[in-house]
Amino acid sequence: MSETMTVAPVVKSVHVKCGVANAFEVFTRGIGSWWPLDQLALAPGEVKEVVWEEREGGEVYEISNSGERSHWATVLEWEPPAGFTIAWKVDPDAAAATEVEVRFTPEGDGTQVVLEHRHWDRLGAGAAETRGNYDGGWEMVLGRYVDKLA
Q: I need a labelling partner for 65 at 20 to 30 A (CA). Which of 3, 35, 111, 142 fits?
C-alpha cells in the first residue's frame, strides 16, 4: 500500500480598488505591466511580452526579446470576468503541472481577488519545498498587482 502525500494549497487574497472587469483585464492581458519579469520569468529581464490565449485550451507564455516563446501555463477554465483556472508548469522539468485558480468578486469599493495554487502533490518529493517557495512568491507578485491598480 502506498501513502498519498497531501500538501495544502497556497491561498492568497487581495483587494483592489477597481471593478471586476478591470481587475480581470489587468491580471490577464495586462500581466506584463505588473509581473516581475526581471525576476520571475524563464528569460529574466529579457521578456518582451506575456501572452494569454483567452480560451479554454489556450496557452500562457512569454516571448523573449529574441523571439523565443516559453510556456507558462495552459488555460483550463476561462470565465471572464469572474475568473480562470490554469495548469501552471513554468518549469519544463517539473514532474507535472499544478493548478492556479483566480476568482474576482465585487466587494465594497472594488474587487476581491482570491488566488488558490493547488495540487502540489503532483510534484512528488519536492512538493512541500516548491509550495513553500510559491507561498512567498505569490505574496510578492500579488503585491505588485495591487500596486499597479492603486
A: 142
Q: Report the domain count for the chain.
A: 1
Q: Does residue 5 form part of some domain?
A: no
- Quick check: is 129 in a domain? yes
Predicted model pTM: 0.94
Question: Which amino acid type is present at position 127?
Answer: A
Instruction: Assess if residue 1 is contained within a domain.
Output: no
Strands 110-118 and 98-107: antiparallel
- Strands 10-16 and 47-52, by their bridges, are unpaired
Domain holding 56, by residue range, is 10-149
Kindly report, residue by residue over 68-93, the tens digit of the pLDDT: 999 999 999 999 999 999 999 998 88
